[in-house]
C-alpha cells in the first residue's frame, strides 16, 4: 500500500506544440480510489500511462510512496494495470494469464497456483481457469484482467477504462463490483474513464482534466456542489447544468425576472476584469416551478423565467423538461426537472425560479467560479 | 483489400482504445508512436537485427554492388576496365536480343493470361458448391517445382502423338475435322498409265465418257493394312455417258498377278477420291466404293474427253501433330506451362479480394437496376482493381526472373529460340560462356527491369501505413 | 380458375429458371472440363512413372486405361536403388530443414525489431528491405561464388543453405513485421508490466501470437527451397546436390532416362504436395499476405 504523487509531471510528445499532460499535480492517499475523468484527448490516459511507465515523463516527477519512479521501468514500479481491451494473452489459459507476472518474477509454482486460485475465487473464475480467453464472455474476460492485477498484490492498481467494452447493464453491475473489491483490498487505485457517471459513482475523489490541465480534484459530492469552473460545471452532472450568460446588476445578477444573489466581492472581481456579464449556472433539479410567491421585479408578471416546453422526458419518479426561454433578449435552451406527478405538456409555458443558494456564478471570461 | 492485408491478427482484442488521449490519434507522429518502442533498451534492437543484417549484407547487398561494378570490367576479372562495353556487346549479341524479345513476350502474355483466367475462375467458382475443390486443383501446381513441371510438360509436349498428350489431342481434333487420308505412300505402278501431278496423280491418256472402264492400279500400300478390304472388281453396270472404273492395289499376295489387271486376290482400295478433269477444271468427282469401283455421272461430265485424277489428299502423309517445342512455338509452349502453374496464384488472390467486396455494394447496384454483367463490370472489377494490379505486378516480377522452366522444357536444339535473360545470364557466366563481365551486365539489366516494381511496392506500403 | 391460372403464371418463370439453370449447367460443365484439363498433365506424369520404360517409349500413358497390366512399381524400385538419387533426396532434406529454421528465427527477430523497437533509420532500412524483396537472385550468383570460394564453402551444403537463407529473409521479415505490427500494443505493454524483458517478451508473447504467420512462412520457405534448382545448380557439387539438380542432370537424355525422371519427378512432387494438401489454409493466407515476391 502506498500513496501516489504526481509532482508537476509533464508529458510532451515529440513534435507536438502543446503538452499532452501539463504539470499535473495530484497527491493520492494510501488506499484511495482516484478517478481521472475528462473528454477525449484530455490527457487522462497519458497520465495513467506515465504512472505505469509506458510513457516518458518529460518534466516533474512521479512518486509511489517515497520512491521516485519517474524513470523506472514498468516492472520495477510494483504496479498492475487493467487495460481497456484487457490485453489478455490469447495463447495462454486464464490461469497462465493471471500467473504470468509471478512466473517471470520467479515465484514458486505452488505459490503461483495458490494465489491464482485465491484470486479466481474472489472473482468467481474458478471453473474457467483452464480456458483460453477466446472461450470467455466479455464480462469474464474483464474479470480475468482484474484477476491478473490482483494476483500480483501490487502497491497500486491502474485501470484504463476497464468497463468501456462491456454492455450497459454489465457495466453498471461491474462498476459496483470493482468499487467493492477495491474497498475490500484497500489497494490504492487510479482509474481512468470518460464517463462522468462512472467517475462520480466509483471514486473516493475525482480529478477532472481538460487539454492536459487539471481542472479540479475533489470528492464527488463537492465536485457536484461546488464545481471550480465552467468546464467542470458543464462536464459533471447529467443532464448538464444550465449555463446562462446574464448582465451584472447591483447586489446580484438578473436571471429573468429574479435576482440571483452574489457576494459583492465576487461582483467586484468580475467588474475589475472589465466583464459586463457573468455566467449563471443552475442544475435542472434546482429550479422551482413558480406559483407567484417568489420575488418578482414586476408585480404584474409571474415570477422567474418563462420556459416554453419543447420536449418532456418522463422517467417515472420525475421528469425533465427541455424548453426555451428568452433571457437577456436571446433564446436559451433550459432543462428543468419536475416532479413525476406534475409533468407539463408540450407547448406549455412554465415559470421557473432558481432555488436560492443553489446557483453558481462563473466569470464569463476566465470561467472561474465567483460565488461561494 | 485482402491482397494487402496480413493474415488476421490475434482477434480477441479490439483495436487500441479510442476516445482517450487525443494527441495519440491523427497526424504523422501518431503513426510513429503507434509503432514506437515499448521501453526497450537501444541495444536490444541491435541484437535482434544483427543476424539479419549480417546475412543480408554479405549475401545480398554486397553482391549487388559487386555485380554492378563487375559489369564494367572484361571477361578476365578486374584487370580490364571496359566501361559500358559489356552492355554494348550484350545489345549486339543476337542471343541476348532473342532473350529480350522472348522476355517481352513473356511479360506481355503470361501475367495477363494467368490473371485473366484467374479472374474468370474466381468469379465462376464463387457460388459453386465444389468451388473449393476446383480451386484446389488449379492451385495445386503452385506447390511443385519448376523442374517437376518441366518434366511434366516435356511429357505433355512429346512430338509423337502416340506418347504426348498434347499432340494426341491435336491429332484427334485435326482428324475429326479433316478426314484422315486413306493411303499415305500409295503410288501408281510405273507404266500404269498414271503420272504424278501436284502431289496426286493423273491419267496419262484421256477417256471419253461412255467409252468403257478406267483401270487405276496403285501399289505401295501394305496389304496388311487392307486385311478387311474386299476383292477388287470391275464395274458392272456403267450408265451411258458415265465414266466408270476401279481403284485397286495391283499386287497379288503370293505373286503371279498381271500388272494392270484385276487378278484374284487383289484388294480393292475403297474411299479413294477420283476426279474428272477437263482443261484443268474438275468437272466431276466420285469416291471408290467397297469393291474399288467408282462412277463419274454423265450429267456432270458432259461431253468431251476427260482425264482422271487422284488428288493429293488421298496420299498425303498422316497429320503428325504440332511441333510444340520447335523454334516457332517453344516459347509459347513454355508460357503455357507457366500459366498452368501460376493461374492458381492469381485465382486465389482474386478470390480473396472478391470475398472482401462488400455484398451491400453489389446488392445496391442490383437495386439500381444493373444486370449481373453490369454489376461485375461496373462494381466488382473496379473494386477489385487494386488486387488485380498487385497480382499483375507480382507475376511480372516473377516472369522476368523465369529460368528453370525454360531450362528444363526447351530441348537443346531450341534452347536458343526459347532463351530468356535469366537463362542467358546463366549460360554466359556458368554454362560455358565464362564471361562474368557480360554475366554481370545481364544481372544489372535484370535488376533494372524489376526496379519499377520496387517503387510500386514501396508506394503501396506507404499507402497502407497511412491508412 | 386457379387451375388454368397457375400454369400461365408459372410459364415464363419456369422458362427463365430453366435458362438460368442451363447457363449454370454450362458453367459447371466448363469448370469441370477445366479442372480435368488442369489435372491431366500431373496424372500423365503419375501414370508414366508407374509404367515400365519400354511401355513409356512406345505408347502414351493413357494406354493403361485399356491395359492396366502395364502398371508396375519398377521405376520406383529402380529409383530407390539409384545411389545418386537417394543421396540427393537426403541432401534436399538437409538443405530445406535448416534453411526453414534459420529464416524463421532470424526473420522473426528482425521482424520484431522492425515492428516494435525504436532505432535510428528504421523506416529507411525497411524501405530498403522492401526493395530487396524483388531482387533477382541471378544478380548475386557470380559474386557469391567468389565469396564462397574464398571461404572454402563452395559446393558445400552450408553454402547452399546460407544463400537460400539470405534470399528468403526479406520476405520473411516483411511478412512477420506486418503480422507482429498488428498485435495489440496493450498485450506487449501488459507483458512489460508483468515484468518481461526484451527476450522474454519476444519468445513468450510475440512469437506465440505470430504463430499463424510463422506457419505460413515455414510452409513457403520449405516449398521454395525444396523446389529450387538454380541455386543448387550453381552452389552445390555432386556430393551436395539436391533432388532437383540430380534429376535435372538426367533431362539431357530425356527419352532414355524417362523411367528415373518420371518417378523421380513424382517423388520430388510428393512431399510438396503432401505439405500443400495438409496446410492449404496457411498456404493460401501466406500467399494473400505476401504477394510481392
UniProtKB/TrEMBL annotation, chain A:
Pfam families: ABC_tran, OB_MalK
Coiled coil (residue ranges): none
A molecular function GO annotation: ATP binding
Keywords: ATP-binding, Nucleotide-binding, Transport
Entry keyword ATP-binding: yes
Limits of the ABC transporter domain: 4-236
SUPFAM superfamilies the UniProt entry points to: MOP-like, P-loop containing nucleoside triphosphate hydrolases
Stretches that traverse the bilayer: none
SMART domains: AAA
InterPro entries: AAA+_ATPase, ABC_transporter-like_ATP-bd, ABC_transporter-like_CS, ABC_transpr_MalK-like, ABC_transpr_MalK/UgpC-like, Mo/tungstate-bd_C_term_dom, NA-bd_OB-fold, OB_MalK-like
PANTHER family: MALTODEXTRIN IMPORT ATP-BINDING PROTEIN MSMX, OSMOPROTECTIVE COMPOUNDS UPTAKE ATP-BINDING PROTEIN GGTA
Protein name: ABC transporter ATP-binding protein
Organism: Streptomyces albospinus
TrEMBL record, chain B:
Mode of membrane association: Multi-pass membrane protein
Transmembrane segment boundaries: 43-64, 104-124, 136-157, 337-358, 379-400, 437-458
Compartments reported by the entry: Cell membrane
PROSITE patterns: ABC_TM1
InterPro entries per record: MetI-like (IPR000515), MetI-like_sf (IPR035906), UgpAE/MalFG_permease (IPR050809)
Main location: membrane
Pfam family, one: BPD_transp_1
Domain annotation ABC transmembrane type-1: ranges: 100-457
Stretches for region Disordered: 1-31
Superkingdom, taxonomy of origin: Bacteria
Gene3D superfamilies: MetI-like (1.10.3720.10)
UniProt keyword list: Cell membrane, Membrane, Transmembrane, Transmembrane helix, Transport
Family, as annotated: Belongs to the binding-protein-dependent transport system permease family.
Annotated protein name in UniProt: ABC transporter permease
TrEMBL record, chain C:
Topology versus the membrane: Multi-pass membrane protein
Residue ranges constituting the ABC transmembrane type-1 domain according to the UniProt record: 89-279
Coiled coil regions in record: none
CDD domains: TM_PBP2
Keyword Cell membrane set for record: yes
Stored InterPro entries: MetI-like (IPR000515), MetI-like_sf (IPR035906)
Assigned keywords, A-Z: Cell membrane, Membrane, Transmembrane, Transmembrane helix, Transport
Listed PROSITE patterns: ABC_TM1
Predominant localisation class: membrane
Compartment annotation: Cell membrane
Entry's transmembrane regions: 26-47, 93-117, 124-145, 151-180, 201-224, 230-248, 260-279
Family, as annotated: Belongs to the binding-protein-dependent transport system permease family.
UniProt protein name: Sugar ABC transporter permease
Species whose genome carries this gene: Streptomyces albospinus
